[in-house]
Amino acid sequence: xxxxxxxxxxxxxxxxxxxxxxxxxxxxxxxxPQCKERFLAHPHAYIGYTGQQAPxxxxxxxxxxxxxxLAVSLSPPEVEMLVEELKTMMGIRDVTVAENTVEITYDLxxxxxxxxxxxLAQIGVHLGEGWAERLRRAFVHYEEECELGxxxxxxxxxxx
Length: 160
Description:
The chain is about 35% helix and about 20% strand. By secondary structure, it is α+β, with helices and mostly antiparallel strands. The strands form three sheets. It has a three-stranded antiparallel β-sheet with strand order 5-7-6. The protein contains four helices and seven strands, in the order ββββαβαββαα.
């Protein structure tokens, strides 16, 4: 008899010993190191507690959109490669490129910004011609814009 178990992060059926861990005396197996890493970072987002369902058990997605501004636009073949490579990642819902802007929509329950950053670095190496550094800068710029936006003083009378 061939038994499988469900990956708590992505829901795929996997071999019971694949990327396995024991957490709180419970056995878990994962389809990939990416899912295992995601689970270990926030296990109770996937398994909840007794009497309390986790967001993943409720079927919740946490969609995020990250917009990167590149100093130089990608060529059409580079755009195609970037989009295809990013879409191989679990949790990536959409990738669009318009001129020098790359917009990535992803499910935070399945993939982290760090994992996306690592993938962008790999893609940059394959693209050559300084793209690894350009993609890294675009990623850092995004982080700085978010930090600055969070520091802004808000109008206490505006509720929007």
